[in-house]
Amino acid sequence: MLIRGRDTGFTHPHASEITPRALYEGRRDLLKLMAGGVLAGGALGNTWAQGTARPGKEAALPAGKSAVAGAMTMEKVTAYKDAASYNNFYEFGTDKSDPARNAHTLKTSPWVVEVEGLVKKPGKFDLEQLLKLSPMEERIYRLRCVEGWSMVIPWEGYSLSELIKRVEPQGSAKYVEFVTLADKATMPGLRSGVLDWPYVEGLRLDEAMHPLTLLGFGMYGEVLPRQNGAPVRLVVPWKYGFKSVKSIVKIRFVEKEPHTAWNKAAANEYGFYSNVNPDVDHPRWSQATERRIGEDGLFAKKRKTLLFNGYEAQVGQLYAGMDLKQNY
Ligand code: MTE
């Protein structure tokens, strides 16, 4: 991104930090959600929610393991503490530690996502409706940030395609635009001119329909913490992290490529596609390697970045015949 945050040191929680209280609270949250009917019918196979560990302080969000091809990497999962404290959410500040410190002001309830544009069934979906739309799945995805670091995060949600099918896109819909909340009263970052608010992202309709494109509501078996984009965000694992737009309030189906926030800020640095690609350097740095958060230290070796972040088998076909250097 244009502004690089300070790097912070990382510590990892030990098994001894998992307290009986966290365990107890986890069950209580789960019962509450089930009593409310929100999670009725959801499979309860989730290791994070069902096992002994509840890593954070959010309500539990159980999910079944995903059957989507490529959705469950076996790589070591990043510590929750890191995933929830080293964030990019410029609406709450540009330092990596700002969102965790500032996002407590974000009001996530009530929350409504408006679906509009070139669809046969436009409408407003509140969070309860969205949570019930399709069974929650756990997906363990690599997330590669354009800045050169990556994490492995267990997300909870379902394929965005489930929502798209309900609203029935018209034949003329070619792209989908996603808009983040922009509320000056609760988002101190909006006072800065670093981006043209609201934060807008976009996908081609076939990318949005790809089963790996996740509409995310939780991580590590719990609902999303605010700094990670509560209550609903996108996770597009083969693209640079900035495509994974947080705290979505609007989804618009359009004919033309949307003007995305980072593309407007620096078109030569942040293209519309932004597929992870070790062979296409950012104008100011190489994209060939990455630092896995949690593997810090003086002698930690950088990892080689993989084409499409390692999801080539699943998504490569979407870009057949396209010049990936031109369409960066
Ligand atoms: N969404 C909004 N609305 N605002 C942002 O600043 N940052 C993006 C993306 N989504 C951002 C956003 C970037 S650059 C990254 S790397 C990911 O969120 C980080 O997600 P995480 O904090 O959950 O790891």
Can you walk me through this structure?
The protein is 17% helix and 20% strand. The chain is α+β, with helices and mostly antiparallel strands. The chain has a single domain, classed as Oxidoreductase, molybdopterin-binding domain (Sulfite Oxidase, Chain A, domain 2, Alpha-Beta Complex), CATH 3.90.420. Strands 1, 4, 5, 8, 9, 10, 12 and 13 form an eight-stranded mixed sheet that branches. A hairpin with a 2-residue loop joins β8 (214-219) and β9 (222-223). The longest helix has 16 residues, at 20-35. The radius of gyration is 19 Å and the shape is globular. The two termini are 15 Å apart. Ligand MTE binds at residues 1, 87-91, 143, 145, 180, 199, 228-229, 241-242, 244-247.
Task: Give a quick precis of the structure.
The chain is α+β, with helices and mostly antiparallel strands and 328 residues long. The protein has one domain (30-319): Oxidoreductase, molybdopterin-binding domain (Sulfite Oxidase, Chain A, domain 2), CATH 3.90.420.10.
